[in-house]
Amino acid sequence: MSGPAAGALVSGRVDLAASVPDGTARADFKVDGAVVASAPAAPFVASWDSFSVAAVSHNDAVSAVDASGAATSSPAVRITVSNHIKTVFVIVLENHDWSSIQGAASAPYVNRTLLAQGAHADNYVNVPGLHPSLPNYIWMEAGGTLGVTDDAAPAYHKLTTSQHLVTLLKAAGLTWRAYQEDIPGTDCPLTNVNQYAPKHLPMIYFTDVNSNVDRSSSECISHIRPYSELSRDLETDAVASYNFITPNLCNDMHDCSIGTGDAWLAREVPKILTSRAYRDGGALFVTFDESAGSDVPIGFIALSPLVKPGYSNNLRYTHSSFLRSVQEIFGVTPLLGDAANATNLSDLFRSFP
User: What is the rounded CA–CA span in Å between residue 160 and residue 232?
Assistant: First the structure.
């Protein structure tokens, strides 16, 4: 039998597959001796909703049943159901009202695939009055603007506080990485390069990350990596606990069209969704930094084995809700800035955090 293997951690919907003897008419997949799914014909694949059992260890086996009803069972393997989020990916897009994305013919992947597979918030709104980009990104990292009101480079905004998300994660022994499209990875990207802009990467503005605005900062270089490395890290199960992804200025819909950004998502999101890190308790959040100019919904999609597929709500959320939710997922405190006042995103999930 394959998937899950002995010792696997599983969550949400679990894909099952059996390798069976010739003459098998049906494959029964069992958890603790009870049939949880059956495959009536080759290729003998099925799926199992792991929410049907407690989040502890279980015995997993398969029985091959022939036409006469005789069954041959595999040895049981031990698996652990862990319906908790362990790995977070976030992709931040640019400057669009949700009304320009939802239902748009130019965004077929978002509307036909992501909204069907994930849960989304119809009232995830622009932080009131907050523009341009950089203050919104800083808010996602620290729960406030920390006095930042423009898009200037890190050399002009030396944020010295240790009270921000990735530093709390590091202090808790959790890993983080920012994957940035178009950076070379040979230095700390403190200024624009190709179609990368530091104003779309909040962590790089903090001096404990950029080593007091040092291009040679090993702390910065080790955590802020070219987006091209994400595929390899997904394939080798080497992604961090928290992964912040910024497409370049074209693919994030900033300089190019909604259709360009939608096509980028269609190419790139499946790489995350098929990874072990995602399947075993992962969550991918797709959102926008800000609206086109008003205090209106900007859209938020959550994808995970643990979400309510196809679900939406009208609860009021902001980037403070995102930040609070990430802090609760990883159990890091204190709640930063306005995150302490926010509603978390738990309503989008079957199990949270």
Answer: 33
In sequence order, what are the residues at sequence separation of 6 or more whose Cβ sits closer than 8 angstroms to the Cβ of residue 107? 101, 258, 259, 261, 262
221, containing H or E segment: helix 218-223
What Rg value do the Cα atoms of the chain yield, rounded?
A: 22
The structure's pTM equals 0.90
Dump pLDDT digits (tens) for 124-181: 999 999 999 999 999 999 999 999 999 999 999 999 999 999 999 999 999 999 999 9
Amino acid at 258: I
Q: How many Cβ atoms sit within 10 Å of the Cβ of residue 67? A: 9
> Tokens standing for 185?
């990875």
Longest alpha-carbon distance in the chain? 77
Q: Which residue has tokens 């748009």?
A: 104
Decide: helix, strand or coil at residue 102: coil
The model's pLDDT over 302-325, given as tens digits with 9 standing for 90+, comes to 999 999 999 999 999 999 999 999
Positions of E strands within 108-221 = 119-121, 176-180
pLDDT of residue 2: 52
At 141, is the secondary structure helix, strand, or coil?
A: helix
Taken in order of first residue, the domains within the chain and their CATH numbers are 9-81 (2.60.40.10), 87-348 (3.40.720.10)
Sign of the torsion formed by the C-alpha atoms of 101, 104, 106 and 108: positive
The CA dihedral of 191, 195, 196, 197, to the nearest 10 degrees, is: 60
The Cα–Cα gap between 287 and 322 comes to 10
- Please tell me whether residue 109 adopts helix, strand or coil conformation: helix
Partners of 62 in the beta sheet?
Answer: 29
